[in-house]
Specification:
Elements: E1 2-7, E2 16-21, E3 29-39, H1 41-47, E4 64-71, E5 83-86, E6 89-91, H2 97-100, E7 112-113, E8 133-137, E9 142-143, H3 151-154, H4 160-170, E10 178-182, H5 186-197, E11 201-206, H6 212-218, E12 222-225, H7 229-233, E13 239-244, H8 253-256, E14 259-267, H9 280-284, E15 289-292, H10 298-311, E16 317-320, H11 325-333, E17 340-344
Parallel strand pairs: 10-11, 10-13, 11-12, 13-14, 14-15, 16-17
Antiparallel strand pairs: 1-2, 3-4, 3-8, 3-17, 4-5, 5-9, 6-7
Helix pairs in contact: 4-5, 4-10
Length: 349
């Protein structure tokens, strides 16, 4: 079926209206009329071919909330009218050890991204959530339990939320842990909210004194301006866990020295070029770790959505019309958003 979308035909062309084709639902498919789609920094990288391998036309968007409008005859978990979400994945091999463990994001043949992933559907690659409608295999659709008035602010949970929730859960964050969240942006602001809800003592790191009040309002117990050497030194050897959401290259030693023995620094931001090599003695002499984490599996993403619904957690957003996407990208590059843009898909009509 023909669907209105916003995408780009080439790296040097703006995101603009286009029509795309969506398949009719197969037996195990769910058709979703999209209500809201978050704008992730990944969208900008992909659509402008700043990451290798962009396929055109490129329709970004992997923070999707919508209403089920049709289901295949083998679908039992969803019904027409349900409010659902779709995140960064729409398929995987579903047979490798990672998929068997519910960790589809680490699929050993590679998961299928919600956009720019291989598919039998025309044009041969997946087209994302900057569109009025999408059809997704039921195993990759998620139930949304938030109130309907909160749905726009739920959309970023499908990427920013799970990207921060998954490492916090994996490293068993709870009331007995001191946790640092580095960066107060789309990911970081969710990390603060989630770690706070998990009961941890949360310390936010920012390079800007002007963000101190914002971080406290989000739920941080304390804020460190990382350019203040005294503030940093005062916390040496004290953190159980630090979640680094910053996507720019930076010195990791300044953070690893803050970890306790057996503490972990986990990276979820991919820098434009490599971080400076960390000092190995910092790791060896305290048995500290530097780790990475990628989104989350489908079961864990559902767990995250349920946790957020239970605790009243959503993203802080700014709603935009579809024809404001390019302006949003330019503002995003300047960090001029608190903290996530979300497209009102009704504006496409």
């Amino acid at each position: 079926m023909t669907t209105l979308a916003y995408g780009a035909q080439a790296a040097d062309q703006p995101v603009a209206p286009m029509t795309i084709e969506r398949r009719a639902p197969n037996a195990d498919d769910v058709q979703i009329d999209i209500l809201y789609c978050g704008v992730c920094h990944s969208d900008l990288h992909q659509v402008r071919s700043e990451w290798q391998g962009t396929l055109y036309p490129c329709v970004p968007g992997h923070e999707i909330v919508g209403r089920v409008s049709a289901v295949g005859d083998q679908v039992t978990k969803f019904a027409v009218g349900d409010i659902v979400g779709v995140g960064c994945m729409v398929d995987s091999c579903q047979s490798c050890p990672s998929c068997d463990d519910g960790l589809e994001q680490y699929c050993e043949t590679g998961f299928v991204g919600t956009y720019n992933g291989p598919t039998a559907d025309a044009p041969g690659h997946t087209l994302g959530g900057y569109s009025q409608r999408i059809v997704v295999k039921d195993a990759f659709v998620l139930k949304v339990g938030h109130d309907e008035q909160d749905l726009a602010a739920v959309a970023p949970l499908l990427c920013a939320g799970i990207t921060t929730y998954s490492p916090l859960r994996h490293w068993n964050i709870g009331p007995d842990k001191k946790v640092g969240i580095v960066g107060i942006g789309g990911l970081g602001h969710m990390g603060i909210k989630l770690a706070h809800a998990m009961g941890a003592y949360v310390v936010a790191f920012t390079t800007s004194e002007s963000k101190r009040a914002d971080a406290l309002a989000l739920g941080a117990d304390e804020v460190i301006v990382s350019r203040n050497e005294e503030e940093m030194t005062a916390h040496a050897n004290s953190f159980d866990f630090i979640l680094d959401t910053v996507a720019a290259s930076h010195d990791l030693d300044a953070l690893t020295t803050l970890l306790k023995r057996d503490g972990t620094l986990t990276l979820v931001g991919v820098p434009e070029h490599a971080h400076p090599s960390p000092t190995i003695a910092n790791l060896i002499f305290k048995r500290r770790s530097i780790a990475g984490s990628l989104i989350g599996g489908i079961a864990e993403t559902q767990e995250m959505l349920d946790f957020c619904a239970e605790h009243g957690i959503t993203a802080d957003i700014e709603m935009i019309r579809a024809d404001e996407i390019e302006t949003a990208y330019e503002r995003m590059l300047k960090s001029d958003v608190k903290y996530r843009f979300v497209i009102d898909i009704a504006s496409m009509g």
